[in-house]
Design brief:
The protein is an alpha+beta fold and 885 residues long. It has twelve helices and 45 strands. The strands form 13 sheets. It has a five-stranded mixed β-sheet, with no helix packed on it. It is elongated, with a radius of gyration of 31 Å. Bound molecules: 2-acetamido-2-deoxy-beta-D-glucopyranose (6 copies). One 2-acetamido-2-deoxy-beta-D-glucopyranose binds next to loops.
């Protein structure tokens, strides 16, 4: 009965959680879920389960700059106060070369005196690292707010000269967006260089240096650069006179845009490599600068992802077939979401060849007048030279004046197929790499490597225009953003730089799939089943005996080749037992049979609960004994994974202590552990189609909701804090409650979600009384309350390397997730948990059902009491049941 007392504060919490979750439903618009667009990674590999990785940790941190030279077998790394030359075949090998390049103590002092952050800013962060000529690299560092550059001789790996002033080449701020290229001895960079200076795209050398124009029209407005690329567009030219450099960034929008709640736009800009500036007009300024808007949106949900986070340019056999892959996010920093859009180079070029914008009456409008010749923005080629224009300095004044006032194109660059390639809620991708891999079916598949802001890598493959995330890999034990990423096709590795180190990850790890089905279901273009093991296809010259099915992920395996695990369970009449069935795949659902007959409907009176990690038999009856089979159903194929023989004992040989409660245990409805089914949870309806022109109001409306919700949630958080303080003072379980602090609940949220270790499953015995070992009788108990959901704790220590809390019962359709995850909202925890369980599993809370509240609490208490009774009973049991065999 004492237990009941300590439960009360928890109930108050539940109430608040419920309220918040109900509120968050209001929030759903316009982020109503689209299951098609929210791709679930097939498997989740935690840090401990990673295979074949090599790590490099030098004495410094912030390994933000990588330069890969495949032929030389070198990976150059720029960190904080140091440079490294690593061996690409194994970056862990000890014979690595290092250059220490720290800020002088005087400079550091000056930096501190300027009020800069002594933890992050007053160091020498290497920001630029590229090849200069055959023998030398060129490097720039922030040098505690006083940038310097230098040459490094690659042989011997040391500075070959003194330092150069880096002020115009490298930003002061280590965190500012920055991109740069060194091409044929010419250095092109883009950033906001000095403290509070305006952004600029520059050619730093050779002379004359070129910049963007600031008056009368600012060409760039608070631009945040993410990347740049040289595209050699010249045809039949030995001097590459039509080659251009493309820059990718997000900036404040100057033009009128349709979505008033947004202030930023994603852009692509370009300049000609052979630009030399104008003679009088645009002197030492670009004469060829043009920029255009890049659009990436989910039209069905009126979601416009306007922040460009990274760009990868996949160059085809010729430049014309290049494809740009962009990672986009939302302007609202507290909402995690990412979209990948791909753009054809031809579409980009068409926009730059189309109409210009012009400022008229302080508004940007499409310019419809006459365009001077040669067309502004085009590079000087043989054609122009034949007309007597030898360089940009010979351009007529009319062209230069026009170029100065018309930096923006009227048309927007739309993605291929006018749609996003992939949309992902609750994840912030920050880096992207793209690789083409030939599969057994003869097709070339596009594989995306996506790095997140909390240290995960997603591997995804494009199949018929849809993205399939093969797996998500946890790269670092401690969550940290992935800062840089390069792909080596030669080493078949990805190199990832972050705050704490550099990791070399193999492009594929086929040996992780231990059966034919897993190998085929994965739809991994790198992997095939050879009859005994899942192997890297590239490692085999003889491929005819390999099995792979990328397009459907079902075909090629013979029946029942899964690794079936056979177990026995004995249970006392009336006790509970969990039959564990962990599915490695997040896309699989379990299916249970008893003595060959399908178990259907896990309703409250069925005596069963199906959950994320198994089947719970509640209050075992004799007719519930028999042979249970658990199948993993994926892509429509059932694969047997577990076989249980369950024996229900009535034997008095098992001494049973009389329970305290004399009343017969009513088949209470343990709402706490209830299976969400489509009927129980109202499906959020998709947003009603809006009349054209309604966007404006919609967004106004939404903004209002947003603000009011933030206010309400803030208030509730305050209340929650008070309650939590109360909880931590008043419960006997004070030590446990501390974990349950305000911060955990409000801040943890989606960003930590399943990544944090609190999802680790523990056995009840070890959890409660420190005894190790597997026991067969187990009862549902509370995991960590951090999660604010209940979870069955498996009674088995076995953990697969790719530990995945698997999804749930074979209900026809998992209900759509009710709302968006936001990183700082309390409600964020629930959707992320739901996602992990693929919709239908144990959910602590009903979705805002005021009438259901008191019965819920009632049965919650009841259930808890029952559990505690059972646990006591289990502990007293002198003869623990035989365990798994
Ligand atoms: C890298 O290591 C491999 C094997 O350890 C070695 O053969 C190769 O020469 C090394 N490369 C360089 C550039 O040191
Ligand atoms: C890389 O080198 C390290 C240190 O020498 C070694 O422990 C590791 O096994 C190597 N990795 C591979 C994949 O060979
Ligand atoms: C940074 O400044 C804080 C307080 O101003 C001081 O306690 C800390 O030791 C400093 N850290 C370093 C690395 O200088
Ligand atoms: C490369 O550049 C460095 C620095 O300017 C110079 O010392 C060196 O001679 C150059 N090497 C070649 C091969 O041109
Ligand atoms: C361009 O170069 C050609 C040949 O070098 C020369 O004859 C011509 O005068 C130059 N044109 C201008 C405008 O400088
Ligand atoms: C450098 O790494 C530390 C953590 O090690 C992080 O707090 C800091 O933000 C990083 N600085 C930059 C500029 O990325």
């Amino acid at each position: 009965m004492g237990a009941q007392k300590s439960i009360q504060p928890l109930l108050i919490l539940l109430l608040i959680l419920m309220l918040l979750n109900g509120l968050s439903q209001l929030w759903a618009f316009p982020f109503s879920p689209s299951l098609d667009l929210d791709v679930t990674p097939r498997t989740t590999v935690f840090y401990k389960g990673m295979l074949g990785c090599n790590g490099f940790m030098g004495s410094s941190q912030n390994y933000s700059t990588l330069l890969l030279e495949e032929e030389a077998g070198r990976l150059y790394v720029g960190g904080r106060g140091a440079l490294y030359a690593l061996n690409t075949s194994n970056i862990s090998t000890s014979a690595n070369l290092t250059i220490d390049w720290n800020t002088t103590p005087e400079q550091k002092k000056q930096c501190l005196n300027k009020g800069r952050n002594n933890q992050t800013e007053c160091y020498n962060h290497i920001r630029f690292l590229q090849r200069y000529n055959e023998t030398h690299l060129y490097v720039c560092g922030t040098n505690a707010f006083r940038p310097l550059c230098a040459y490094i001789a690659t042989e011997g790996f040391n500075f070959s000269s003194g330092f150069e002033e880096g002020r115009d080449r490298c930003p002061y701020d280590p965190a500012k967006g920055y991109t740069g290229l060194l091409i044929d001895g010419e250095m092109f960079t883009a950033s906001q260089y000095e403290f509070r200076s305006s952004p600029d795209i520059r050619r730093n050398f050779p002379f004359p240096t070129l910049r963007t124009e600031e008056a009368p029209t600012r060409w760039l407005l608070e631009a945040d650069f993410v990347g740049s690329v040289l595209l050699k567009e010249s045809i039949n030219s030995s001097i590459g006179d039509d080659d251009k450099i493309y820059f990718f960034f997000t900036e404040r929008s100057q033009e009128q845009i349709a979505y008033p709640s947004q202030t930023k736009v994603s852009r692509v800009a370009r300049v000609c490599k052979n630009d030399w500036g104008g003679q009088r007009t645009l002197q030492r300024k670009w004469t060829t600068f043009l920029k255009a808007r890049m659009v990436c949106s989910v039209p069905e949900y009126e979601l416009h992802l306007n922040i460009l986070r990274d760009m990868f340019v996949l160059q085809g056999r010729d430049v014309q077939s290049s494809i740009f892959y962009g990672v986009f996010g939302l302007e609202w920093k507290n909402i995690k979401a990412s979209a990948i859009c791909q753009y054809a180079f031809s579409d980009v070029r068409r926009v730059f060849e189309g109409p210009y914008m012009e400022m008229q009456d302080s508004k940007w409008r499409e310019y419809t007048g006459k365009v001077p010749e040669p067309r502004p923005g085009s590079c000087i080629t043989d054609l122009h030279r034949s007309q007597g224009i030898n360089s940009s300095r010979d351009l007529p004044d009319s062209v230069l004046t026009f170029a100065r006032r018309h930096p923006l194109m009227a048309k927007q660059v739309h993605p291929i197929g006018l749609r996003t390639l992939m949309f992902k809620r609750s994840v912030n991708y920050v880096k992207i790499g793209v690789h083409k891999e030939p599969a057994l079916d003869g097709n070339l598949y596009t594989v995306l490597f996506l790095g997140t802001d909390n240290g995960w890598l997603h591997r995804a493959v494009e199949v018929d225009g849809e993205m399939h995330i093969i797996e998500e890999l946890q790269m670092f034990a401690k969550p940290q953003p992935i800062e840089s990423m390069v792909i080596s096709s030669v080493q078949r590795s990805i190199y990832i730089g972050s705050h704490s180190g550099v990791i070399q990850v193999p492009m594929s790890t086929c040996q992780r799939y231990t059966s034919c089905y897993e190998c085929v279901f994965a739809r991994d273009p790198f992997c095939g089943w050879d009859g005994r093991a899942c192997v890297e296809i590239s490692s085999r010259s003889q491929r005819s005996n390999l099995t792979q099915d990328i397009s459907r992920g079902t075909r090629g395996c013979k029946e029942n080749l899964g690794n079936v695990i056979h177990r026995r369970r004995a249970v006392m009449l009336g006790d509970d037992v969990l039959l564990q069935c962990e599915l490695r795949s997040n896309l699989a659902t379990p299916r249970w049979t008893l003595n060959g007959k399908e178990l259907q409907g896990y309703g409250l009176n069925s005596g069963y609960r199906a959950g994320t990690d198994g089947l719970l038999i509640i209050g075992a009856r004799t007719q519930q004994g028999g042979s249970y089979r658990c199948f993993a159903v994926e892509n429509g194929v059932s694969v047997l994974v577990y076989l249980y023989t369950v024996k229900v004992h009535t034997d008095p040989y098992f001494p049973v202590e009389p329970t305290v409660t004399t009343e017969p245990t009513t088949v209470s409805s343990p709402v706490v552990l209830y299976t969400v089914s489509p009927t129980e949870q109202p499906l959020p309806s998709p947003p009603a189609p809006l009349p054209p022109g309604a966007n404006f109001q919609t967004y106004r409306h939404m903004e209002a909701i947003y603000i009011s919700l933030v206010a309400v949630l803030g208030g509730l958080c305050l209340v929650l804090t008070v309650v939590l303080l109360y909880v931590s003072f008043c419960t006997r379980r004070a030590s446990q409650s501390r974990k349950f602090s305000h911060q955990n609940l409000t801040v943890l949220g989606a960003s930590e979600r399943k990544r944090s270790s609190h999802l680790e499953l523990k056995t009840i015995s070890s959890h409660c009384n420190g005894r190790q070992g597997r026991r067969s009788i187990s009862v549902p108990t509370f995991g960590d309350f951090n999660d604010s959901f209940l979870q069955i704790i498996p009674d088995d220590d076995q953990m697969s390397p790719a530990k995945t809390p698997p999804p749930a019962p074979p209900l026809p359709n998992p209900p759509p997730l009710p709302n968006m995850d936001y990183a700082n909202g309390l409600s964020a925890t629930l959707p992320s948990v739901l996602r992990k369980m693929n919709g239908n599993s144990y959910v602590l809370l009903r979705q805002a059902d005021p009438e259901g509240m008191s019965p819920l609490y009632h049965s919650f208490t009841e259930e808890l009491n029952r559990i505690l009774e059972k646990r006591k009973h289990t502990q007293l049991d002198m003869h623990p049941d035989e365990s798994s065999i």
